[in-house]
Amino acid sequence: xxxxxxxxAACRKQAPVPRELSLLYEFANSLDERRFxxxxxxxTAGDGLASVGALQAWMxxxxxxxxxxxxxxxxxxxxxxxxxxxxxxxRLAPYDRRTSADAAxxxxxxxxxxxxxxxxEGYGVQLQPQCRGTLSGLGKVLVDLHHAxxxxxxxxxxxxxxxxCQWVFYDRxxxxxxxxxxxxxxxxxxxxxxxxxxxRVEVPSLRARPLSGG
Length: 214
Description:
The chain is α+β, with helices and mostly antiparallel strands. Helices cover 44% and strands 11% of the residues.
């Protein structure tokens, strides 16, 4: 019989990101730009927040929108700008995130989702979205972002280096140097493609080499 702790360890291993970053992860990946072919089957990309109604349903399913509340087109535009800015920021290497146009763009998008400090019972302190409209709940995505930076995990949240993927993933490797969301899939495809490119360059150059006279 598998012990409780073994089952818990397996669950932690399978989780794509730490629980406290799950909302940020899911919001960023609500846009699926993957277009690779795996096992002969092309992956179908999609946008889980493509319309006002889709955004509404997503927010409600994540507890970010009250039952009966309705979003407007302007709300959808602000949410899409936040997601786009966030994905642009996470696409950068960690050392490039501090001073970049993408960081400034994320700051501008985040201004639509102000946060406030809330004092909890027992003198705990946490950030919460300031209630300024039906879209305010998305501020919790920024709470996740702040928390990730505060505990030193933000640099582990990256975008897959494969142009055919662009999936946001959490780097669990000890040195935090992973480039692909999956070494066995995206990493292997990129390495195979690079190898074939080198072969195409090297073989013609060998054929063009003149034979030395005897």
